[in-house]
Write a structure and sequence with these properties.
This protein is mainly α. The protein folds into 3 domains: 8-195, MFS general substrate transporter like domains (Growth Hormone, Chain: A); 207-263; 271-485, Growth Hormone, Chain: A (Up-down Bundle), CATH 1.20.1250. Helices cover 76% and strands 0% of the residues. It is built from 23 helices and no strands. The protein has helices spanning 11-36, 38-44, 49-52, 54-77, 79-98, 103-132, 137-144, 146-165, 170-173, 175-189, 208-231, 236-258, 273-284, 291-302, 308-314, 316-336, 338-356, 365-390, 399-431, 436-451, 455-458, 469-474, 476-484.
Amino acid sequence: MTKNKPDRLDPALRKLIAILMIGAMAPLLDTTIVNVALNTLAHDLTTTVSTVQWITTGYLLAMGMAIPLAGWAVIRIGGKRAWLVSLALFLVSSALAGAAWDISSLIAFRVLQGVASGVMIPVLQTLVVQAAGGRQMGRLMAAVSMPAVIAPIVGPVLGGLIVGTTSWRWIFLINIPICLVGLVLAGRGLDDTGLDDTGQRSNVRLDVLGLVLLSPGLAAVLYSLSRFSTLHSLEPAVTVPLVLGLVLLAAFVTHALRTSRQPIIDIRPLAVRSFGAASALMFLSGLTLFGATLLVPLYLQQVRGLSALQAGLLLVPQGIGALLARRSVGGLTDRIGPRPVVLAGVVLATLPVAVFTQFGAHTNLVVIGACLLVFGAGVSAASIGVLAAAFAGLQPAQIPDASGTTRILLQIGGSFGTSVIALLLARQTAAHPGAPDLAFAGTFWWTAAFVVLAVAPALLLPRRKRTPPEEVAGDPAIKGAADAG
């Protein structure tokens, strides 16, 4: 890394990120495109909406069950091989989904897609964090988050165009060229990883008991939350899998803390203050920062009567706000630490949510777009700060497990938040029959209140970046800044 440009990521690291980002665009785009096409799929495959929802639910359950395998795969077969295998599986499953002959086959192939996606994203995080050596985490996470910012902008619009102009099969077949390019670039440009300190391949045995406890436990909890968001009550279909899942997860925690072998996911990094606080924020994100992300598209379609494509276009400002914020948030996080950045992002996200409560049937679309622009900037700032804090202070050997833990918490937190917001919207709708604008306003108030919950764990994040001793010793300017902090 050149000293005259300390704010730039190392060229080799930028190349690694670019290669991985191309492959990551496939699963990130796929999710947003499929959500737009659910109604079309139900019609074309002659099935019910409740059945077609399994295209999404099955994908999410499979993703949750596969996440624990990512850390083990990086250690056992190497990061490059783990990435290539998971990307190849996503390519094959996308081709199969595009050739599906009925709803059952499509759901089955979506499950395969979920398995591939569940491994891909934690492997991506592990590779870039290990390559960065724990430095410049703010800038690193700003770069890594680019596909997650672009996908919500491009996905709904692209999905609307595909559904409106061609066969639904292309919402899956479009992944094939992306995956092919990603495979070629990764095969040529990635270095192999997953070696131990002696340079030999780590012969880590798979923690079968941990996998048997953790993966079904995650799937049961995610399934329960999915059913709750549909039924809006604590029926046996909700409580039985929830209790079963919590028991399995509790058994896994006990096993992971007591086993003498490497657990499938090592939860001991949660004892690190920054990682524990960041993990709590990731779980809360489902209720806080992303509640409005679920509600706004529903408001635009149910209250304003916009089509899926029109609603997707109106959500573009949110992505633009996120893009604008990430240009400066990464470097700012590295300079002043993640705590003030995350707190500022939470405040910035709260303000437009408070304005959302005043939305009605005739709210100016320009006002809605401006609110989404600010909201996107706030979410982007908070997300980058949280991800940067999550890996601060961890040893390289802890990064694969930490990557898996963050994805699990995001998955459960997002499902939990979706369920709670859906329940609140249903109850507000029942309380305001014939007045959907009032129902959404009441739900937005709850969302604004939930944002405040993020403040407590955010206060536990590091205030200032910890500068590695070797950097301080080697750079007088950094030493002076570190001594001042």
